[in-house]
Design the sequence.
């Protein structure tokens, strides 16, 4: 936590205006942008909700988690360059140009409500994890998590968020890979696990493993992710169109590779911890049982980091909408950049308080996965379709965007409240109706010359590649300092892991951790030597 706080304070020094605070001045390198994108969509939700599915149904949990690959590929191919060319600071900003100010305000307010609900589920998940792994009560775990995550998001803006995401990614991957061999060993080896639970190694195991359910879920996640404000923010924060495509493809690769490693311990829990009352405790239960206390601290830090990365990004982009799309438009149009940065930081505090309070009540919706699935199906679809397809097609009208939201949410509430209709059928009907309403509005041609000219000019902007003058150049001095921040963070992480491993020397987990810590220390030394060769002569980092 101290390491992450140091990163946030450091990057806070470089934030000069609201554009830097919310999109890093379009200078985020695509590689760390992709890692941040991955971590922003990733949280303890995977180690609670998806782990619970893997415990019950095995590799079907991986099938569900692979649904995240497709929205990244879609964004890389069709949407990323459009988001970058749009020149926006917040994901809903373009809606005023594309439709009108009423659509922008509607999506700002309702979208904030959906983001609040989604983040409450994420905080609930980390509360479950901390409660199982420590002596904290659920109430204490939620309050502590909400306070820490809010405080860390306030200082440095999106640059601090993406750098913290990258560092937390290293810790998360290390801790997760550490648990895989320990879990397989405790389960008697992979062959014993397969022999004892063959159904868990069937990709289509479980009541939801039907083609229709999987198709609808994949379609739902593709819509949800491509309309996710954090997801969109990463694409317009990089320097050019090529970087936005690389960001999307690399994010897809990360989502494809790592799910199997994350869920193997939860599958092994069938052998290690049979008959769990709450399957969502599977992953943390295995970690508590197999990891020595020092390394369990590392695992807890890794899982907390995953949620922290996710919510850091969410709180930043939600504050962006509150500040630029609501406060700046409706309250004070002529404030200074310093004024708006302070308003943005106060809005992060507001977001943190509301999300933390709501997380205490998520359990009443049936657990993390069910709550997320239900809320997404009802609310996210009507908001996603106009937000995504409004930047792809110029035919739909403003009335279509508003009607899609109103009718879609109302229909979703009705369908999901009917006992005789399945979730997948209710969701498919809602998607179909929303598409019909939105694109149906395009058959009614606008009579407003101003609207037609504005929309045509916007789509001309989206079709026009960025000029050389529109592509920012990152200061070599800043890049050098950024490089040194990574070197220092890797060295400190390696030293911390080494210290924790020495506390339980002689165990299998300690031996693996020792190897990993030496790797991080050697890597940081190599990167430090490499950075010295390219140190700029100019000492200024302005």
Sequence:
């Amino acid at each position: 936590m101290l390491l992450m706080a140091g990163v946030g304070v450091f990057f806070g020094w470089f934030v000069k205006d609201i554009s830097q605070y919310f999109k890093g001045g379009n200078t985020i390198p695509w590689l760390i942008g992709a890692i941040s994108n991955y971590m922003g969509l990733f949280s303890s939700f995977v180690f609670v909700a998806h782990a619970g599915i893997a415990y019950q149904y095995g590799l079907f949990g991986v099938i569900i988690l692979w649904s995240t690959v497709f929205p990244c590929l879609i964004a890389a191919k069709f949407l990323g360059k459009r988001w970058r060319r749009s020149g926006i600071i917040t994901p809903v900003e373009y809606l005023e140009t594309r439709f009108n100010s009423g659509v922008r305000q509607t999506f700002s307010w309702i979208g904030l409500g959906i983001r609040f609900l989604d983040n409450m589920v994420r905080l609930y998940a980390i509360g479950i994890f901390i409660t199982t792994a420590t002596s904290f009560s659920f109430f204490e775990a939620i309050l502590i998590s909400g306070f820490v995550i809010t405080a860390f998001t306030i200082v440095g803006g999106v640059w601090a968020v993406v750098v913290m995401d990258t560092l937390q990614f290293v810790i998360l991957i290390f801790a997760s890979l550490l648990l895989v061999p320990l879990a397989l060993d405790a389960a008697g080896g992979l062959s014993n696990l397969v022999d004892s639970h063959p159904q868990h190694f069937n990709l289509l195991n479980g009541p939801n493993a039907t083609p229709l359910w999987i198709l609808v879920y994949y379609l739902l996640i593709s819509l949800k992710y491509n309309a996710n404000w954090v997801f969109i923010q990463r694409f317009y924060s990089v320097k050019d169109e090529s970087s936005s495509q690389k960001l999307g493809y690399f994010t897809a690769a990360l989502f494809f590779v790592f799910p199997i490693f994350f869920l193997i311990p939860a599958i092994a829990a069938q052998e290690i911890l049979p008959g769990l009352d709450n399957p969502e405790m599977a992953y943390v239960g295995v970690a508590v049982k197999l990891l020595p206390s020092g390394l369990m601290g590392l695992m807890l830090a890794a899982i907390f980091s995953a949620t922290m990365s996710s919510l850091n990004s969410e709180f930043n982009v939600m504050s962006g909408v509150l500040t630029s799309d609501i406060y700046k438009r409706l309250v004070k149009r002529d404030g200074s950049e310093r004024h708006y940065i302070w308003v943005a930081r106060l809005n992060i505090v507001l977001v943190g308080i509301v999300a933390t309070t709501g997380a205490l009540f998520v359990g009443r919706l049936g657990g993390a996965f069910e709550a997320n699935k239900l809320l997404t199906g009802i609310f996210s679809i009507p908001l996603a379709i106009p937000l995504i397809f409004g930047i792809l097609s110029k035919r739909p009208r403003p009335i279509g965007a508003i009607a899609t939201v109103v009718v879609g949410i109302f229909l979703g509430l009705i369908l999901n409240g009917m006992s005789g209709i399945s979730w997948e059928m209710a969701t498919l009907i809602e998607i179909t109706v929303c598409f019909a309403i939105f694109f149906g509005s395009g058959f009614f041609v606008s009579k407003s010359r101003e609207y037609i000219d504005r929309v045509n000019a916007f789509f001309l902007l989206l079709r026009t590649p960025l000029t050389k003058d529109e592509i920012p150049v990152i200061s070599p001095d800043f890049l050098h300092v950024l490089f040194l921040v990574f070197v220092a963070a890797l060295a400190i992480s390696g030293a911390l892991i080494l210290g924790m491993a020495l506390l339980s020397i002689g165990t299998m987990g300690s031996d693996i951790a020792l190897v990993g810590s030496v790797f991080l220390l050697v890597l940081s030394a190599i990167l430090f030597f490499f950075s010295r060769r390219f140190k700029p002569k100019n000492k200024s980092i302005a």
Summary: The chain has a mean pLDDT of 84.
